[in-house]
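Sample entry (408 residues):
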Amino acid sequence: MKMRFALDLAEPHDRPVRRRAGPMLSGASLTATRAANLQPWRLPLHELADLVNVSFLDLAKVVTAHACGLQRTGLDELLFGADRIQQSIDALTYAMHDRQIRREVSILSGGRHEDVEALAAQEGAVRNRLREAERRLKEQRVAELTAAGILPFPAPTDDSRHLARAWLGRYLPDEKEALVRRLATEAGVAASASIHIRSISEKITRCIDNGWLTAPLTDAVGMLLELDRSAFQRRIIADAAQQDGRDDALCHPLVLNRWRDGLSAALTATAASAGNPHTRHLHDLTRTSLPRNAAPIGQLHDRRRLFAALLQRRAEAIRLITALNDGMCLAERRDPSYELMKKAGDQAYDEVVRRHPGLYQCIRAHLARYETRYGRLRFTGSRAELRSHVFEELDRMCSMRLAASARR
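Predicted structure, serialized as tokens:
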């Protein structure tokens, strides 16, 4: 495949490399700054690896060239190996939005048909490569989680005894968790590993404290966490406005969820001015818009650039959150305390059943109508709705017991 596009792509045999030395400057301690490489994909592979590590825009040029047909030994592994595939997906997202917006502007401003066709071809090629890279990342993730025993997730139990025990522990969470901590401590589990987790921030903090996750809480991250909503939103917008200078503090595990939510709020606030009817993806303006004069097109171009950057950042935040959750699960599984905590949990559920036989039998009675003759459950409705109904019945039982105790 051969395409001529804005990055000035050409196969090596089609256009010779013209190397130009930097200008010679006179004077003490004066050196010339090297000009940006217009064709970074033609650098030696070790130099290219260094370049794409530090320059997002150069990485975007290289992944675009690769998507449009550039073949080179080692390039596929360099761009889509396990250590760089997420960055390449981010660069492909940027390149796809870039081509779409430039194509829209060209159409709405009456540009040449040849330019529009070239941009459309590039956009399609980059979009296809992006989808391929996303599939590859998903396959890598599934393979790693499967090897660790996390996937496939176990099917919901159809054993009425196990389900009744689980629901009773859920109905009495404080008592069950206290038992887990006591049993875990008796088994030798450190207190920091047996803390009951009630929020994602508590889980992240526990992983950091136990050494399962390396994410120092620097002064920059601390300041970011203390920002109010409006200041945080301004920080998000400032980060999205630049591609080569990223705000690394936003990627800290303790900030990620707030960053994602803030990006969603910013997208909602800017969608209308960017001509986008939703915040899911970048809508194609040329399918619904009429030609505009030059000034509004320029303003719209800037707004759509920002909107596209916010979409790109949100996709990045979601990938990082997914990777963080996977990493924490893998780290917990590999820690010696995992099996001890699992055993303590089983013992705690059994102890709760022993302490509250009446509540347990009440749950079993509600489940009995869904049992088959093999002693297994077969639900016809929602488990969540049935559980809520059962918990209401348990509340009534506990209230009656309290009232009876008070009369005595």
